[in-house]
Amino acid sequence: MSKIPPSPIYIFRGHAEQINSLEFIENNKYLISGDAGGNVIIWDMVLKRSKIQFKAHNDGILNVVKFNDKLISHGRDNTLNVWEFNQLSNIKDGGNKEESIKPEISLKVNSLNFCKFDFCYEVSHVEIGDKRDELFIAVPSAKDSSGIDIWNLTNQKLIASSIGLDQNSKTGYCMAIKIFPNNTFQNFQSVTKNYFILAAYESGSVSLWSIIINTNELMSNEKDNATVEKLWDRKEHGESVLSIDLSSDKQFAISTSGDNKIVKYNFDEGFKKEPLIKSTTVKYAGIAEVKIRSDGKIFATAGWDTNIRIFSSKSLKPLAILSYHRESVYALAFSRILSMDEQDRDKSIEEGKDLGNEERTEKHYLIGGGKDQRISLWEIY
Predict the structure, then answer these.
(1) Whole domain around residue 210: which residue ranges?
(2) pLDDT of residue 49
């Protein structure tokens, strides 16, 4: 990148409180942002203006994502809400209609420790010629914030509870979670599915858990539905881990914490061996979030010191410091780098399946937001 410090190419203004969550959706056509007041805004990335605005929670937003035709929001009010996306499209900048918009599902979860939920899905063949998406979410346990619960959001059943609480380890609160399938294990014909949970803790440690789930017997006794095994544990941080992200190809993860250390975990093919560790440090302590771009080449960090930093994923060498915000940055998101196949497929999407704008945004964007209530938009190589 240029030695001259870059400037943001646009600033989104619309939130009145601290921004906690950012995410690109619909192949980068739209941006979702959530704030500490429980408000969600969906922005049109072509027009650079608010398309939808509504109050999703009675307390701060922790995370908002889109899956198929659903919007899933996680709030500090200890609820996880599922919204019908097409119903939201009828709201214009929060108008008077927001009171009549209700979530399709509202699930009671633990939000005490600011840990964002994560999700993955499985295509299940219910009958011959019939299939549906089974959506699994991982959140801190309702019994104890050190543990992890897994829910099947499709049928709203708890299928694994308090993962990690029986390990006699003093990890403190679970602070960050990533759940993903073991693709070498999966078999569409089998009812037994294997998932991994990468969990980061208040103690500064990161653990990998293997979860084997019997998706055909989701009974009330969750212990009958999942077999749990800790594969490894590493303590690389001296302070509480604040964020962890996993590369799209599942070959590595990066964690950040209340200290000034950035840690990369390089995984073996089966994930069972302890990862190879590589780390670097920055000048100031407190890195609230880390995000890896979808092509895995670079990652970004959000600092309490108000700066966004860009690094090479391979070498961990710093590439740029993005300075605009006057207060701490808490949330980041990269636009997705689309493959040629995805770009061709995107062109064939029928009209009317999104919010109405067919133009695609394929630029290499990075966005950041935080305490100053503004969202900065940057164009990165």
Answers:
(1) 119-237
(2) 95
